[in-house]
UniProtKB/TrEMBL annotation:
Keyword Hydrolase in record: yes
Catalytic activity: ATP + H2O = ADP + phosphate + H(+)
Positions of the UniProt region annotated as Disordered: 115-134, 198-226
UniProt feature, compositional bias: Polar residues: 198-210
GO MF annotation list: ATP binding; hydrolase activity; RNA binding; RNA helicase activity
Protein known as: SKI2 subunit of superkiller complex
GO biological process, one term: nuclear-transcribed mRNA catabolic process, 3'-5' exonucleolytic nonsense-mediated decay
PANTHER family, per database record: ATP-DEPENDENT RNA AND DNA HELICASE, ATP-DEPENDENT RNA HELICASE SUPV3L1, MITOCHONDRIAL-RELATED
Gene Ontology CC: Ski complex
Gene3D superfamilies: 1.10.3380.30, P-loop containing nucleotide triphosphate hydrolases
């Protein structure tokens, strides 16, 4: 190397006596290079006597470990699994213990980290309840393709009773050991089906074998067409109930209904049931019996509900009844060791994915309010849970009446391979009467008109009476006969007040309280309640009871929180017997109102639709403020299912003979058709809301044995796929194919397969062109009377016809017999001339020719119809028919190669790209036909028929193979798009193995991509705990606010980073093909509560933070509670990553927000 930095590379060997040139000619030698790390470590820690004195060993070890020596600890090691165990031998009659035998244990190395088997070792106690995101789930009982971790793909499980071969491969006969002591020869299946009776040996043995073979397919047929949903007849009484169950697990103080008895009989048989019953029919009885049964069997039951409020209520009810009941929600965990656990469906999903040990002991899972599966956002959770439940778990589904309960049960039965018994009630226990109310003053307060009787009769008389009553008070300008689209905004606040005041006074006089008034706006709920200042519906004793209950319930709040404006105003309303229930009300207040309502102390409750969802609080009367609601996109009328769900709250069983439902006509009477459709329409069917989520994909990918496509295939959205029937048909087609004679493709016939494919393509192209012609205006114009057309259908092949009459549906034509030639087969069939008149569909016309004939349609049709009568049948055809037939015959003979047809492009002027390309392709294919040699073969017709037969079977087989393959899954394309996103973000690698980021995302239940990216980009690191909580509030808050929050600069930087990351993920998703735009993805994160959460985490009282925003108090509390769950997830994720600083920061943030009124314990649970 020279001074200038250039160096010389010596490529040729130097003479032995010549020394190598110096390493460097630099003045100070080579510049220092990076020190070798290994050498440095050795020098520093192993060769430095000062650091590790050879003679002072004790001091050296203290430096390394900093702890006392425990030599004895080296003698202990973890226990290896036992390879054998003891089995008890008992007397089969008395049960007396006779002996113990040693048995070998299988699968001793299985654990939650490597196996889906229930035989695996239990995990540590800390993971027994919720499981761990590194655990495998237990094998779902949905027929997932599962290979054990130590089995190769060539290995398979063998049933040594049934699966052993009796005929060795390659031999025609074997030995049958099935008959005791007698050995008989078995002939192979192939030999049996192909040999002649003379060759087949013993006729007796043949008869037995053939009969056995005949039996098998019948049994298979029976199994294939098995209906998994079994409707149970509840019309006849169940008289032998107490004989069949002499010692029930739970005794009821009342006589059970037939549907309840039938359900209990099925539970005793350990069957799964779907109970679709009317509101207040008593579905809970079925759930209670299952809980009692599991306590008797010493197993466990999980009761899931769609909403937290319902979970809390059921906890109180079941705790009173059974005692041994626990509760698991996002923020509460009570008695998790109990035999009955109540939880939300999301928590059960998490437990299933994380391999919770609770699943081992599980006997029943009860899904309450199953119609919630229709929820667009959360419905997918129900499907995931139903698919992921192991085989040993039985399912109880409780729902309001739904039209497709059998279809839904059929789906569950099919994926679980077990029958589901469907039990539906025929009618409500308390019938309903539906009224229209038009009163608005003391004078008109009795204007209540019966519209729908309890028997289901719709009374138009009542409707017209309501219209008349309303008309009398409206100005002439507004008179109308049932104004359509009456909006609730057409009335002023004072008019509303007058209507409510009048109605509630009237109902109070008639003792028709308690009343639930459904109002589809939180603001209007509050306004209606506040406007009734002069209404007092409680006695002094009731006022005292309400006051003491309020005082007792509010003692758990701090002093300042008891003086919140909402609590003070509600206290005044409740004392007068008026309550308000919606999501904006403080949770503790909602519970107070629910409890007072159930005790009959709240006489009028203004509520939104959520009150009807499962909260079991029936009333005497239900009132609808309006029949229109906003569903997030626009205003619409209530659906029949929504109306029935809410109206069903009317009528208390055992207290009321009938329930009363009243619809207010404030601005005018609603349209009769709309009312009829809403009251008597079919309720909403259960529909699949299955969609792919990143959490689902990652949870399934991390377990090698489970596949996302298996989950997709078993979803309710793919219920139309009858895979079993398809697979049976595939087997039949394969047998058919193998039995067909081989094709002759030698010599002239070498191109017969190409010829078949060309002909098939030509036929498809012709049909597509003809469809385009007949759908066009010019094509329909060409189909005029007298036009000559070519007809192809079941009766006629390439027949000429003439159009006699054109209508929107049938087309009359007259045509002679099929005596024309196919353009590609040079043969001519002549028959004596005859004719017929037929109604044709447009698809029967295969071509429109350029020719027209002069015909007299009326005469032809009349003469033909006349000759169809028996006495005129032998008459000769009329002159008009004879002329037309002769003309058609002359055309046929003059054009042996086919008549010229109208060209779609040149004659009919169709200029679409598809049509032009189709015409060009058609010409090319027509020209190709002349070049084939096979058509000159003497055996062409016979061989072509064979090809056609074989190809028809092959095409059907290919179609069915596609239908049963993953490629036909509706969501497969989206799955590949989402995998691309995960690969681009490095959550999974190219082989689909889940990486560190993917494992973190598994821990997060919603917005997993954004949160994981924030975690890995250290966005939360520079923020204080309260700032982190404020920033993460954007993941749980979904409303738009009018007030801009005032926030710190660090927090603003954090918000900008969140928006940048969201924008990047949104753009990546769009680039990978996912339909959601980047703008929509970013827009779902709302920062309206950042200031509120920040101030709350810093210790500001609730009364003050409520002033910072226009969001209602109940919504604030719900968001902060959900935020606490997010903080826990981030803390767990930080531990996986190894970021202990962030983990402890999240813990501090969680502690900062868990205080006072926001985390006051529920009245139901304490």
């Amino acid at each position: 190397m020279g001074c200038s930095g250039r160096f010389e590379l010596i490529t040729h060997p130097l003479p032995k006596n010549r020394p190598l040139p110096p390493h460097s000619t630099l003045p100070h030698g080579l510049p220092p290079t990076c020190l070798d790390l290994k050498t440095e470590v050795e020098k520093r820690f192993l060769r430095d006597p000062a650091w590790l004195p050879v003679h002072d060993v004790d001091d050296a070890f203290h430096k390394i470990s900093g702890r006392d020596r425990e030599v004895e600890s080296l003698l202990h090691c973890s226990l290896s699994p036992l390879h054998s165990g003891l089995s008890v031998v008992r007397d089969p009659t008395t049960g007396l213990l006779l002996d113990f035998t040693e048995v070998l244990l299988e699968d001793t190395a299985l654990s939650a980290k490597n196996s889906l088997s229930l035989q695996r070792q239990p995990g540590p106690p800390s993971e027994s309840l919720r499981g761990s995101n590194t655990n495998y789930p237990f094998l779902p009982g949905s027929g997932f393709r599962y290979f054990s971790h130590n089995c190769s793909e060539l290995e398979e499980d063998i049933d040594f009773e049934k699966d052993l071969l009796t005929v060795p491969p390659g031999l025609k006969a074997g030995v049958d050991f099935s008959d005791k002591g007698r050995v008989s020869l078995l002939l192979s299946m192939f030999f049996l089906t192909t040999c002649t009776p003379q060759d087949s040996g013993s006729s007796a043995s043949n008869t037995v074998l053939l009969s056995e073979q005949k039996k098998k397919p019948q049994q298979e047929d029976k199994g294939d067409h098995k209906k998994w949903a079994v409707p149970v007849d509840i019309t006849s009484p169940c008289d032998d109930f107490y004989k069949r169950i002499p010692d029930p697990a739970f005794k009821y103080p009342f006589e059970l209904d037939v549907f309840q008895k039938q359900a209990i009989l099925r539970l005793e048989a350990h069957d799964s049931v779907f109970v679709a019953a009317h509101t207040s029919a008593g579905k809970t009885v079925v759930a209670e019996y299952a809980i009692a049964l599991s306590q008797k069997h010493m197993t466990r039951t999980i009761y899931t509900s769609p909403i937290k409020a319902l979970s809390n209520q059921k906890f109180r009810d079941f705790k009173t009844t059974f005692g041994d009941v626990g509760l698991l929600t996002g923020d509460v965990q009570l008695s998790p060791e109990s035999s009955c656990l109540i939880m939300t469906t999301e928590i059960l999903r998490s437990m299933l994915y994380n391999g919770s040990e609770v699943i081992r002991d599980l006997e029943w899972v009860i899904f309450d309010e199953v119609h919630y599966i229709n929820d667009a956002e959360r419905g997918v959770v129900w499907e995931e849970v139903l698919i992921m439940l192991p085989e040993h778990v039985s399912i109880i589904l409780l729902s309001a009446t739904v039209p497709n309960a059998v279809e839904f049960s059929e789906w569950i039965g099919r994926i679980k391979k077990r029958p589901i018994y469907v039990i539906s009630t025929v009618k409500r226990p308390v019938p309903l009467e539906h009224y229209l109310y038009t009163g608005n003053s003391t004078k008109t307060q009795k204007e209540l008109f019966l519209l729908l009787e309890s028997t289901g009769n719709f009374l138009t008389k009542g409707y017209y009476a309501a219209v008349e009553a309303k008309k009398e008070r409206t100005s002439k300008h507004a008179q109308s006969f049932g104004t359509k689209n009456v909006s609730q905004h057409n009335t002023t606040a004072s008019q509303d007040r007058a209507v409510w005041q009048t109605l509630l006074n009237y109902l109070s006089q008639r003792q028709q309280t308690p009343v639930v008034a459904f109002t589809f706006s939180r603001t209007r709920c509050d306004e209606n309640a506040r406007s009734l200042t002069s209404l007092d519906l409680t006695s002094s004793i009731e006022k005292s009871e309400i006051h003491s209950f309020l005082q007792k319930s509010l003692t758990r709040l701090r002093g300042g929180d008891r003086q919140l404006p909402q609590i003070l105003s509600m206290r005044d309303l409740l004392k007068r017997g008026i309550g308000v229930h919606h999501s904006g009300i403080l949770p503790i207040l909602k519970e107070i109102i629910e409890m007072l309502f159930s005790r009959g102390l709240v006489k009028v409750l203004f509520a939104t639709e959520t009150f009807a969802m499962g909260v079991n609080m029936p009333a005497r009367t239900v009132v609808f403020d309006s029949i229109r609601k906003h569903d997030g996109t626009g205003f619409r009328n209530l659906l029949p299912g929504e109306y029935i769900q809410m109206a069903g709250r009317a009528g208390r069983r055992g207290l009321d003979a009938t329930g009363t439902v009243i619809i207010l006509c404030k601005a005018g009477v609603h349209d009769m058709g709309e009312l009829h459709a809403m009251m008597l329409g079919k309720p909403t069917v259960l529909q699949s809301q299955f969609r792919l989520t990143y959490t689902m994909i990652l949870n399934l990918l991390r377990v090698e044995a489970l596949r996302v496509t298996d989950m997709m295939r078993r979803s309710f959205s793919e219920n139309h796929r009858d895979t079993q029937a398809h697979e049976k048909r595939i087997s039949e087609l394969r047998n058919t194919l193998s039995s067909l004679r081989p094709l002759d493709t030698e010599g002239q016939l070498s191109d017969i397969l190409s010829y078949y494919h060309t002909i098939t393509e030509l036929r498809i192209t012709t049909e597509t062109l003809q469809r385009a012609v007949l759908e066009s205006v010019n094509g329909l114009k060409a189909l005029s009377v007298g036009r000559v057309v070519i007809v192809n259908n079941g009766q006629h092949h390439n027949a000429l016809g003439v159009i006699l009459q054109v209508s929107f549906h049938p087309i009359y034509t007259s045509h002679p017999p099929p005596n024309l030639t196919c353009p590609h087969i040079k043969s001519h069939h002549e028959r004596p001339c005859s004719h017929t008149v037929r109604k044709l569909k447009s698809q029967d016309i295969s071509a429109i020719t350029t020719r027209t004939l002069k015909v007299i349609p009326e005469r032809i049709i009349d003469n033909y119809n006349k000759r169809q009568q028996p006495r005129f049948r032998l008459d000769p055809p009329g002159q008009a028919i004879s002329t037309a037939t002769q003309e058609l015959l002359r055309l046929a003979e003059a054009n042996p190669n086919g008549i010229t047809t109208l060209d779609p492009v040149n004659d009919l002027h169709l200029k679409g790209v598809d049509v032009v390309e189709g015409v060009m392709r058609h010409r090319v294919l027509q020209d190709c036909l002349k070049d084939f040699h096979c058509i000159h073969s003497p055996t062409f017709t016979e061989q072509f028929a064979r090809v056609q037969e074989r190809m028809c079977v092959q095409e059907e087989l290919d179609k069915l193979l596609f239908l049963v393959s993953d490629q036909s899954l509706t969501l497969l394309h989206e799955y590949h798009q989402r995998i691309k996103v995960l690969e681009a973000l490095q959550y999974v690698d190219s082989t689909g193995a889940v990486q560190l980021k993917g494992r973190v995302a598994c821990q997060i239940s919603s917005h997993e991509l954004l949160l994981t990216e924030l975690l890995f980009e250290n966005t939360l690191s520079p923020l204080a705990p309260e700032e982190s909580a404020a920033l993460l509030s954007c993941l749980v808050f979904t409303q738009n606010t009018q007030i801009d929050p005032h926030i710190t600069s660090t927090l603003q930087e954090g918000i900008n980073q969140v928006l940048n990351v969201a924008q990047r993920i949104g753009e990546l998703q769009r680039d990978c093909g996912i339909a959601q735009t980047a703008e929509d993805f970013v827009a779902q994160f709302k920062f309206g509560l950042t200031e509120v959460v920040y101030c709350w985490a810093r210790g500001m009282p609730f009364a003050e933070i409520a002033q910072l925003t226009d969001v209602q108090e109940g919504t604030i509390i719900r968001c902060i509670q959900r935020l606490d769950e997010v903080l826990k997830e981030v803390r767990q994720a930080a531990r996986i990553v190894g970021d202990s600083v962030l983990g402890s920061k999240m813990e501090r943030a969680s502690l900062a927000i868990r205080r006072d009124i926001v985390f006051t314990a529920s009245l139901y649970t304490h």
